[in-house]
Amino acid sequence: EELKNKLEESSVVVEKKAGADGKLFGSVTSGDIADALSEKGFDIDKKKVELSDNLKTQGVYTVNIRVFPEMVAKLKVEVKPQ
Q1: Of 16, 29, 33, 35, whose CB has the highest number of CB atoms within 10 Å?
Q2: What are phi and psi of 79, to 5 degrees?
Q3: Strand 59-68 to strand 49-50: parallel, antiparallel, or no bridges (unpaired)?
Q4: CB 62 within 8 A of CB 73
Q5: pLDDT 10s digits, 33-70
């Protein structure tokens, strides 16, 4: 419960190379989000990051993090051009 609250109170920024139209040259994957979380001190496995599809444009997204099998935290992820 405490981990879920900490995740929902925080947000992460992931930077990727992007074109002028805001489309990314790659995509933001669950591994990128897990890496960004580990930089903030969270130990979250990339398999617990639930993405329906990789993020391919810049913007702010809400991503589900499976804290426990029956508990999901909503994390705010901001995708910025590099």
Answers
A1: 33
A2: -105, 120
A3: antiparallel
A4: no
A5: 999 999 999 999 999 999 988 899 999 999 999 999 99
